[in-house]
Amino acid sequence: MSALRYVYAVCRPLDAPLQAELTGIGGAPPALLHHHGLVAVVSTVPEADFDEQGLRARLEDLDWLSATARAHQGVIAALSTVTTPLPLRLATVFRDDSGIRAMIESREDDFRRALDRLEGRVEWGVKVFVESEPAEPAAAQAAKPASGRDYLRSRRRHSEAHEERWQQAESFARSLHERLSLHSEDFRMHPAQNSALSGASGQNVLNAAYLVPRSGCEEFVELVDRTKDETPGIRVELTGPWAAYSFSGEEA
Amino acid sequence: MTTASRFPEPYGQSGGGANLADILERVLDKGVVIAGDIKINLLDIELLTIKLRLVIASVDKAKEMGIDWWETDPALSSRARQNELAKENAELRERLERLQELAPGSVPTEEEAP
Question: Is A56 in CB contact (< 8 Å) with chain B?
Answer without folding.
Answer: yes
